[in-house]
């Protein structure tokens, strides 16, 4: 039944724009057939774009992310990633959580190697790559530290390196720096932009901070709660690379106001 | 789940400066000697009946006699140690095995839990005479009693540890496409390791109790037998000497478990964690082509 369904989705989406990596049509997720967590969301996400999902708690942004990750199944509608219906976790899609979820009995580099281990045997090339990724996220000289020896920000950097180690081109970030202090978060956001530019990935970034959502993204998907709904997709026209000073410009503040008014109407 | 026992009584993680350590040890020894002296005098001047509380010097003499001159105590000690350790191993393997099955399979967990609870609320030591009736008078019944008494802490702690997995970490593994087997061995089991070890620490002292009680009921060898022989003969100094030996044996087992904990749950012990971190850096030096401090 499932196989046939995913086949149909694949057939129906294969003729569409190959630049679209994630596509949803009237996507619905209900829990216990009562609580509607996500109500008829439709959107297309272009290859290489950075998309923020912003909205208050209960607006279905985490649900949407988990649907794309294949961690939960949809209730109705269509959802395809790289032209195929989603039926479970895929190696093309990597996910990062609000908490680092590091394994405390493994060193930083061993944590980064986890995706490789899960997929099969680990080669010296994989190990070299893990070391390089730790350097990329600014953790040179901490490769052999255990999570308990690292600060919260550093732990989240390890988690980011682990995400990149998956080799996935679609990165789903669920409030990745939400538990960190303002300064660390700002710095990590800037580094995140630099890194995803480097690896040429498509990013879905969940946050409840409007400025952060706009600053990082090419597009902001604004979501409203009860039931979780995709209210509007706002384009963000600013050039890249972006500097932190952008947040003081009038155009930036106009966009913040626009997003806030969409959220405020609900 | 609050039934889980936390067997962490040690203060080995606290490492005070060397001078302060010597001072502390000296104070402990001084206090111990003072208590012994008071006791000695109280006994000598018959403030307490030496038949109830023999003099420390008499206990020490009995101890030296037993350990150095008679020598038979070593045989009895070996018997009890073997019974306790075998009971511990069997009880722990059964406890952990059942917990793993229950942790992985929800319906098995539901079916087994009433029996586990029934067994837990029964004073299991009351089963000892029945077990001896089944298995006879050798070491087997003592091992069985030890296993029966000590299986619960490893069981409940393992189950708690396995079920107490961080939901985000679980999702992280699933998003990587991990199979159930991989999640079990790479996440659930190591995650449960600290609390499993706490259960094992409790279990080993329970197994020792089981062995001794079994010997009390019916046996011809072991420390429990020795203890009964001496008390029946009203040789209280020797009875207390047996008690001292049992204390030392219990402590040795406890230290052994602490050592195992240090070894297996290295990430909770700073010194060993740092040592492993260094060791791994050296092992990787060839791959990353630079020396680690």
UniProtKB/TrEMBL annotation, chain A:
<dbReference type="InterPro" id="IPR003439">
    <property type="entry name" value="ABC_transporter-like_ATP-bd"/>
</dbReference>
<feature type="domain" description="ABC transporter">
    <location>
        <begin position="22"/>
        <end position="250"/>
    </location>
</feature>
<dbReference type="InterPro" id="IPR017871">
    <property type="entry name" value="ABC_transporter-like_CS"/>
</dbReference>
<keyword id="KW-0813">Transport</keyword>
<dbReference type="InterPro" id="IPR027417">
    <property type="entry name" value="P-loop_NTPase"/>
</dbReference>
<dbReference type="Pfam" id="PF00005">
    <property type="entry name" value="ABC_tran"/>
</dbReference>
<keyword id="KW-0547">Nucleotide-binding</keyword>
<dbReference type="InterPro" id="IPR050166">
    <property type="entry name" value="ABC_transporter_ATP-bind"/>
</dbReference>
<keyword id="KW-0067">ATP-binding</keyword>
<dbReference type="InterPro" id="IPR003593">
    <property type="entry name" value="AAA+_ATPase"/>
</dbReference>
<dbReference type="GO" id="GO:0005524">
    <property type="term" value="F:ATP binding"/>
</dbReference>
<comment type="similarity">
    <text>Belongs to the ABC transporter superfamily.</text>
</comment>
<protein>
    <submittedName>
        <fullName>ABC transporter ATP-binding protein</fullName>
    </submittedName>
</protein>
UniProtKB/TrEMBL annotation, chain B:
<feature type="domain" description="ABC transmembrane type-1">
    <location>
        <begin position="77"/>
        <end position="257"/>
    </location>
</feature>
<keyword id="KW-0813">Transport</keyword>
<feature type="transmembrane region" description="Helical">
    <location>
        <begin position="143"/>
        <end position="163"/>
    </location>
</feature>
<dbReference type="InterPro" id="IPR035906">
    <property type="entry name" value="MetI-like_sf"/>
</dbReference>
<keyword id="KW-1003">Cell membrane</keyword>
<feature type="transmembrane region" description="Helical">
    <location>
        <begin position="85"/>
        <end position="104"/>
    </location>
</feature>
<protein>
    <submittedName>
        <fullName>ABC transporter permease</fullName>
    </submittedName>
</protein>
<feature type="transmembrane region" description="Helical">
    <location>
        <begin position="184"/>
        <end position="212"/>
    </location>
</feature>
<dbReference type="InterPro" id="IPR000515">
    <property type="entry name" value="MetI-like"/>
</dbReference>
<feature type="transmembrane region" description="Helical">
    <location>
        <begin position="60"/>
        <end position="79"/>
    </location>
</feature>
<keyword id="KW-0812">Transmembrane</keyword>
<feature type="transmembrane region" description="Helical">
    <location>
        <begin position="232"/>
        <end position="256"/>
    </location>
</feature>
<keyword id="KW-1133">Transmembrane helix</keyword>
<dbReference type="Pfam" id="PF00528">
    <property type="entry name" value="BPD_transp_1"/>
</dbReference>
<feature type="transmembrane region" description="Helical">
    <location>
        <begin position="29"/>
        <end position="48"/>
    </location>
</feature>
<keyword id="KW-0472">Membrane</keyword>
<feature type="transmembrane region" description="Helical">
    <location>
        <begin position="116"/>
        <end position="137"/>
    </location>
</feature>
<comment type="similarity">
    <text>Belongs to the binding-protein-dependent transport system permease family.</text>
</comment>
């Amino acid at each position: 039944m499932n196989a046939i369904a995913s086949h149909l989705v694949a057939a129906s989406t294969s003729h569409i724009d190959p630049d679209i990596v994630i596509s949803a049509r009237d996507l619905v997720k209900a829990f216990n057939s009562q609580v509607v967590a996500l109500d008829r969301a439709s959107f297309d996400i272009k290859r290489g774009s950075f998309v923020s999902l912003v909205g208050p708690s209960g607006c279905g942004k985490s649900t949407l992310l988990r649907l794309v990750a294949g961690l939960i199944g949809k209730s109705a509608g269509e959802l395809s990633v790289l032209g195929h219906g989603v039926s479970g976790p895929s190696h093309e899609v990597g996910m990062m959580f609000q908490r680092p979820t590091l394994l405390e009995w493994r060193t930083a580099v061993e944590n980064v190697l986890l995706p490789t281990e899960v997929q099969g045997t680990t080669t010296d090339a994989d190990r070299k790559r893990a070391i390089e990724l730790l350097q990329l996220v600014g953790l040179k000289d901490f490769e052999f530290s255990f999570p308990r020896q690292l600060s919260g920000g550093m732990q989240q950097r390890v988690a980011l390196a682990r995400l990149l180690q998956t080799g996935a081109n679609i990165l789903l970030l669920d409030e990745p720096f939400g538990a960190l202090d303002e300064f660390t978060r700002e710095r990590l956001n800037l580094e995140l932009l630099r890194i995803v530019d480097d690896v040429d990935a498509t990013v879905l970034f969940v946050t409840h901070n409007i400025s952060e959502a706009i600053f990082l993204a090419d597009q902001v998907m604004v979501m409203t709660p009860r039931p979780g709904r995709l209210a509007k997709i706002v384009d963000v026209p600013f050039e890249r690379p972006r500097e932190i000073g952008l947040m003081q410009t009038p155009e930036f503040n106009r966009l913040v106001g626009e997003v806030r008014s969409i959220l405020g109407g609900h | 789940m609050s039934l889980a026992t936390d067997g962490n009584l040690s203060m080995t993680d606290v490492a005070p400066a060397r001078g302060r350590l010597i001072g502390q040890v000296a104070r402990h020894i001084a206090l111990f000697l003072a208590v012994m002296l008071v006791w000695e005098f109280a006994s000598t001047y018959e403030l307490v009946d030496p038949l109830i509380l023999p003099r420390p010097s008499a206990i020490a003499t009995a101890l030296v006699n037993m350990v150095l001159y008679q020598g038979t105590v070593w045989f009895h000690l070996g018997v009890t140690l073997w019974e306790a350790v075998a009971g511990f191993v069997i009880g722990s393997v059964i406890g952990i095995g059942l917990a793993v099955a229950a942790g992985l399979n929800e319906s098995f967990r539901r079916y087994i839990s009433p029996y586990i609870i029934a067994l837990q609320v029964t004073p299991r030591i009351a089963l000892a005479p029945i077990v001896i009736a089944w298995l006879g008078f050798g070491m087997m019944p003592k091992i069985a009693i030890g296993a029966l008494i000590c299986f619960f802490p490893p069981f409940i702690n393992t189950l708690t540890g396995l079920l107490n997995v961080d939901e985000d970490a679980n999702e992280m593994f699933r998003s990587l496409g991990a199979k159930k087997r991989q999640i079990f061995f790479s996440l659930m089991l190591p995650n449960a390791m600290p609390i499993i070890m706490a259960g094992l620490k409790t279990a080993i002292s329970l197994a020792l109790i089981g062995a001794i009680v079994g010997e009390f009921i019916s046996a011809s060898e072991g420390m429990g037998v020795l203890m009964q022989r001496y008390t029946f003969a009203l040789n209280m100094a020797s009875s207390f000497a047996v008690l001292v030996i049992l204390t030392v044996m219990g402590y040795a087992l406890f230290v052994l478990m602490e050592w195992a904990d240090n070894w297996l749950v290295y990430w909770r012990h700073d010194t060993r964690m740092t040592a492993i971190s260094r060791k791994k850096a050296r092992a990787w030096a060839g791959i990353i082509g630079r020396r680690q401090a």
